Amino acid sequence: xxxxxxxxxxxxxxxxxxxxxxxxxxxxxxxxxxxxxxxxxxxxxxxxxxxxxxxxxxxxxxxxxxxxxxxxxxxxxxxxxxxxxxxxxxxxxxxxxxxxxxxxxxxxxxxxxxxxxxxxxxxxxxxxxxxxxxxxxxxxxxxxxxxxxxxxxxxxxxxxxxxxxxxx
Amino acid sequence: xxxxxxxxxxxxxxxxxxxxxxxxxxxxxxxxxxxxxxxxxxxxxxxxxxxxxxxxxxxxxxxxxxxxxxxxxxxxxxxxxxxxxxxxxxxxxxxxxxxxxxxxxxxxxxxxxxxxxxxxxxxxxxxxxxxxxxxxxxxxxxxxxxxxxxxxxxxxxxxxxxxxxxxxxxxxxxxxxxxxxxxxxxxxxxxxxxxxxxxxxxxxxxxxxxxxxxxxxxxxxxxxxxxxxxxxxxxxxxxxxxxxxxxxxxxxxxxxxxxxxxxxxxxxxxxxxxxxxxxxxxxxxxxxxxxxxxxxxxxxxxxxxxxxxxxxxxxxxxxxxxx
Lengths: 168, 323
Prior knowledge:
The complex is a heterodimer of chains A (168) and B (323).
Chain A: E1 7-12, H1 19-22, H2 24-31, H3 34-38, H4 40-50, E2 53-56, E3 59-62, E4 66-68, H5 75-85, E5 90-92, H6 101-107, E6 113-117, E7 129-132, E8 138-140, H7 144-151, H8 155-167
Parallel strand pairs in A: 1-6, 1-7, 5-6
Antiparallel strand pairs in A: 2-3, 3-4, 7-8
Chain B: E1 4-9, E2 13-18, E3 22-26, H1 33-42, H2 44-49, E4 53-54, H3 61-70, E5 76-79, H4 81-89, E6 102-106, E7 121-127, E8 130-135, E9 148-151, H5 156-164, E10 168-171, E11 186-188, H6 195-203, E12 210-211, H7 216-224, H8 243-254, H9 265-268, H10 284-292, H11 297-308, H12 314-320
Parallel strand pairs in B: 2-8, 3-6, 3-7, 4-5, 5-6, 9-10, 9-11, 11-12
Antiparallel strand pairs in B: 1-2, 7-8
């Protein structure tokens, strides 16, 4: 029986992220490493989300677009792959659509991945655990939404805190 | 504003009708949002065919000012998630509200600085290689009988609802958030700017009992001018920040000296809600349900709203089903 748990760490706002993490969709071309795509996880993400096949470290076969470069992958696939291979970095949860949730779950089975919250939250997979950063609060997929609605800062407040911190 | 149709045949065929100032395309990853932007920016043929589509790849305060100068009513400003993040960070997002152009946003996230309606939020529906937009939210323009209603403030709408609804009407006071009212009754709010809030509720899987016509002033204007029962956005200038302001201006013209803080006596005695009540008298919709043996009317009403893209779908089902 698989007893592994999938846990992600949720940060409030993008305080702990560099521009390459915040803008991972645009930055992917520069930051990705070939083996990310040819790894089991990379191949599976691209298969499940983009319905595409990895042909090599720099080429993917899309059923619609034909042969494409990695930067043509969807924002969700790029973000999941980057987060899986950079478990010490913090990526935007808002980049992930609901169809990314199963792969988010699988990507955190080997160790927690880090994400930041900006007001949007997708529908997590069954059994997904979410720990609020710097707290002992761990919520499951059933309780995270209401907790965030009641406790998380508003989108505008998150931006205000961020700007205040940068100014300081 | 007038509709703009984007018919873009790249690897996929996109047929996107921009009916409002803002069109927000949300939905799953890999459903074609970014692919459209990439094709338009990187394939010269499409750049040439749609010279009026502006797709900024990087923004700072200067480029925002530059965009503000460039756009006109034929322009479509297409913004992806990364650009929207930057605009939020630069606190420049709210400037989009004043632009006189169509704005197509490709984003999962709510944009609380922008004044768009839940009716402006779509997802891309794929059928083979064809991609069309479908409304994300069912209509919130049916008011159900409830024990408690919550309004945004104590203004004219709240006064009117207090008189015309059977349940108690509680105006929210300072700093009372919608969140506090969820599950306790029906929230009555202006739909004209409720898009971000609806996206957020939806993203958290939270069901909300909501009655959200464009605004209370829209109900008044609709009562006096039947033009507003149909598609009316062609009357609304693009540079207006929101439909709410447009209809307030209409009512101010109709009732000189109209003050939002007090509902005019003439309005207090008319039935603005007749078309919106869930239990209204027999209608074409009821005939439709009877004909097809539909028992879950609420569910079917929402489905039809989504299929026809309007709450006034009765005229369509009348023709389509020979009622």
